[in-house]
Amino acid sequence: AAGLSNVGSVAGSVVSVIDTDTTVDETRDLVLLDLREPSEYETCRLPLAVNYPATRISRDQFSPDLYQCKKDLNKLLVVYHRDDQTTAFAATALMHKGWDSVYILSGGFEEIAQNYPEVMEGEVPDGLV
Questions:
Q1: What's the rounded mean pLDDT across residues 6-14?
Q2: Pairing status of strand 76-80 against strand 50-51
Q3: Burial of 4 (0-12, 13-18, 19+ CB in 10 A)
Q4: How confident is the model over 67-71, as a mean pLDDT?
Q5: CA-CA distance, 104 to 33, in Å (whole number)?
Q6: Is the separation of the CB atoms in 104 and 35 below 8 Å?
Q7: Beta strands at 121-122 and 44-45: parallel, antiparallel or unpaired
Q8: Which among 29, 77, 92, 112 would be 20 to 30 A from 67, CA to CA?
Q9: Is pLDDT at 64 greater than 50 in this prediction?
Q10: What is the pLDDT of residue 125?
């Protein structure tokens, strides 16, 4: 089971989902955002993930659900993109725009798809399995 750990701070906390005492099963109201492009999301994604392209963050285009994460401390906002670097960039952008706690899926989509293809929905892209 994935857990949570701290990887850095920008006016709050950007943390990474990886081995610690807190598993996702123990948290309430998980909001999992897939920050990749819609075509990538449609091909393959994590269960429960909602597509929210990272380009929308840079344009200040936020959905009501995302705003709810900003106000409701019981919601756990977890984001992922292709890899750690891209995910961290988007998570940091959310932090700068006022979200206090943003969690990133450690390793990004590519690492999760390589190591846990059985949990993915859709067709895992060639080269990742």
A1: 37
A2: unpaired
A3: buried
A4: 83
A5: 10
A6: no
A7: antiparallel
A8: 112
A9: yes
A10: 87
For 65-95, b/e burial (b = at least 16 CB within 10 A) is: ebeebbeeeebbbbbbbbebebbbebbbbbb
Measured between alpha carbons, how far is residue 25 from residues 4, 94, 99, 113 in Å? 11, 24, 22, 20
d(CA 126, CA 103): 27
List, in sequence order, every beta strand (DSSP E) within the chain. 4-8, 13-17, 30-34, 44-45, 50-51, 76-80, 101-105, 121-122
Are the beta carbons of 58 and 86 closer than 8 angstroms?
no
Distance CA 96, CA 6 (A): 17
Token pair belonging to 24: 């996702």
Structure tokens at 17: 């989902």
pLDDT in tens, 74-113: 888 899 999 888 888 889 999 888 888 888 888 889 988 9
Quote the tokens at residue 4. Answer: 């949570």
